[in-house]
């Protein structure tokens, strides 16, 4: 997936934060917004801005459709051991 250039599936940060545990610490809507609408999130959302300060890179908009974003969320859930 094109996200893997910047995100790993464990907790290690590469360019962006690792995805392990994400579905336990973030609300599904928040993750969906981050995947489909990252510019708005970086402008308005405090948590997203904190990540930006930490990573010092703006995540580029990946033009992910809502349907694909749901799949990504599902994939993250599986990565966190949910079914
Ligand atoms: C060029 C690098 C890059 C790519 C490619 C990228 N991201 Fe990101 N992502 C980041 C950075 C950096 C952050 C932290 C926020 C910021 O600084 O913009 C982030 C944050 C996130 C977060 C929030 C993480 C958390 O810890 O709360 C999610 C979810 C996310 N990205 C999903 C995706 C998805 C899904 C894709 C692929 C469709 C993707 N990213 C592709 C760099 C990237």
Structure description:
This protein has five helices and no strands. The mean pLDDT is about 95. By secondary structure, it is an all-alpha fold. Helix 2 (about 30-35) crosses helix 3 and helix 2 (about 30-35) crosses helix 5 (about 65-80). The protein is globular, with a radius of gyration of 12 Å. The protein has a single domain, classed as Orthogonal Bundle (Cytochrome Bc1 Complex, Chain D, domain 2), CATH 1.10.760.10. Heme C binds near residues 2, 6, 16, 22 and 31.
Broad shape: globular
| Helix and strand sequence | HHHHH
**CATH architecture assignment:** Orthogonal Bundle
Oligomer: single chain
* CA distance, first residue to last residue: 21 Å
* Count of the separate structural domains: 1
What ranges have pLDDT less than 50 throughout 5 or more consecutive residues?
A: none
| Bound ligands, each once | heme C
Q: Give the % helix.
A: 40-55%
Q: In total, how many beta strands? A: 0
What's the CATH superfamily, by name? Cytochrome c-like domain
Per DSSP, what share of the residues sits in E-state strands of 2 or more residues?
under 5%
Mean pLDDT: 96
| Radius of gyration (Å) | 12 Å
Biggest sheet character: none
CATH names the topology as: Cytochrome Bc1 Complex, Chain D, domain 2
């Amino acid at each position: 997936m094109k996200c893997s250039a910047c995100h790993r599936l464990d907790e290690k940060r590469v360019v962006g934060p690792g995805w392990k545990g994400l579905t336990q610490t973030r609300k599904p809507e928040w993750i969906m917004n981050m995947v489909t609408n990252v510019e708005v999130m970086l402008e308005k959302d405090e948590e997203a801005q904190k990540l930006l300060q930490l990573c010092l890179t703006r995540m580029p908009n990946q033009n992910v459709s809502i349907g694909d974003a749901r799949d990504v969320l599902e994939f993250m859930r599986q990565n966190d051991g949910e079914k």
